[in-house]
Amino acid sequence: xxxxxxxxxxxxxxxxxxDAEGQVLGRLATKVASxxxxxxxxxxxxxxxxxxxxxxxxxxxxxxxxxxxxxxxxRRHSGFPGGFKEEMLQHLRLRRPEAIVERAIRxxxxxxxLGDRQFTKLKVYAGTEHPHKSxxxxxxxxxxxxx
Length: 147
Fold this sequence. Notes:
Helices cover 28% and strands 17% of the residues. The chain has 147 residues and is of the alpha/beta class. The radius of gyration is 17 Å and the shape is globular.
């Protein structure tokens, strides 16, 4: 019996929309990362980009648990002396709310060139409007605990 290996030209890509309003950040990120990688498909192959496009809307209304709103820090460095910056989650939410969701999902993808290609299929928007209506995206429902 031979094992199946997906080829890049054989991959059928779909578009999905996920509403992040009221969703917990980590749980949303794991589901989105799984769809971006293609793990929801039977022809998933680890070294081939078999994933779908995902549009996340309402990123500004994402929930975090515990005291992360005041305690979680996002760090970056420009590469220049004195270029280290730290920012709390509540400040980043005011300045650029889609960056919170993007960074959480990026951390769950492979840190390789394959992961870079998979990350380009993610589109995150702070509000409800997005410019991808012509792709006819399907709504992807996330199951909440207790439903």
